[in-house]
């Protein structure tokens, strides 16, 4: 299928769909859809030679589907095309033994505008006016896409400067067509009395390969008022700068006061000031005339003209060539830049095998090497269409003990993807921020952490969607103490343990490593406590402080048939104590030694 099909408003559009299959035409199932607000809607279906039209479709009464003269090709014809028909159309083909395939075509609708009109001011315009004076108004109605109006003075296009202002306004009619109005105001001088002003309207039509068509208005003239003052009975006239005074015989009189030198100053010159200037002096006493001539040439550089201009939409893999030119009286240099990086040293910019990274703003700069500071610029905005692609693909584990964490997500695609954040429970996180980039959009979100959580970054546009998950592992520090039911003589030592919940995670992050210092400190404290306990027992043993229940006695005099060492075992719930020998013999309570 063709990428685009162009058609005039209220005309008939023919969209063809060619397919290849080893099966016959009778086994083919061909479906037609149109895409609106990102969703596809069925128009009709053709199974074999039978066609079924969706009667709820807005195209139900305006379409026909027929085979063309080309084998394996069908055509969808749409009559009485409207502006609302400027959408994407999809042809879906499926056979009995083969999977379905699809093709896309964008329908472009063009409406030729009415003939433009121009209306000039009818009053005279003074060259001494303090502000810019209105010259006239141009208007063109009912065009699509929006027509462009350019003002001309004689054969020179007029652009906005300090002395010229072109103000354009656009109205969208109820029919969807555009009407454009343009007002011209400028500072006039004496030469403008002979000038002609008119407007040129540029617009597009189908089948012109992107070349704009042109219409012109009728030409108008203006009346220029030059003031002068008679200073004496002699015919001496003081003329305002740049004005002409014509007598009955059309002789140009340029008079000045008596002085040694005479000069004329040209300010804010344009190319129209180029030409030959003549200075004539007349001695009125002897009526002798002296004259001299000089040539003046004003260098100029017009605005940069880009083709294509403004904004370009590309599909992945496409190639486009953009040109940038500016008319100048001197030699020029042209270069293309993107993000301050030079992309081309020529007036042509070639973008091949487009990817999302191709998207961005390309700046064309035209300079005149011979004149410092003389340059003009133009910009081209390139968008590469496609479904979103989230760039966070290389996944690592996120481990943190912070109360919050900031996550980032960068999605490429056009139209610009919309990025949303959700949790595994389906809760939407509204604290995220989104900003557009050259190739798509970037978003950041701050997540409050109370436990392990999975956060999803979702990016979507009219083509499709993409998502990536962030599985976060939270470290929680818990303080515990031993059971309070220990013996009064025992020593209670608080113990601090760190609990780490383990989850799988897959964003780009660097996990934190837990310190082993706590474990080492606990081991050292235990060793010191055992050493102190052993020292106390040894000290009591030496002092003879160990005795049985009936009174003090020297435990060293007791003889056992097996060993002399006994251990006292006490129960938490009773006062009963049984001494066991090292070899496991029970010692009666009367013979037990209490420590």
UniProtKB/TrEMBL annotation:
Gene3D superfamilies for the chain: Immunoglobulins
Q: Which GO terms describe its cellular component?
A: cell-cell contact zone; membrane
Compositional bias per record (Low complexity), positions renumbered to this chain: 481-505
Which portions of the sequence form the region Disordered?
481-512
Where in the numbering of this chain does the Ig-like domain appear?
Answer: 1-108, 116-218, 302-381, 388-469
SMART domains given in the database record: IG, IGc2
Q: Where in the cell is it found?
A: Membrane
The record, for PANTHER family, names: CELL ADHESION MOLECULE 4, IG-LIKE DOMAIN-CONTAINING PROTEIN
* Name of the protein in question: Melanoma cell adhesion molecule b
Species this chain originates from: Nothobranchius furzeri (Turquoise killifish)
List the top taxonomic levels of the source. Answer: Eukaryota, Metazoa, Chordata, Craniata, Vertebrata
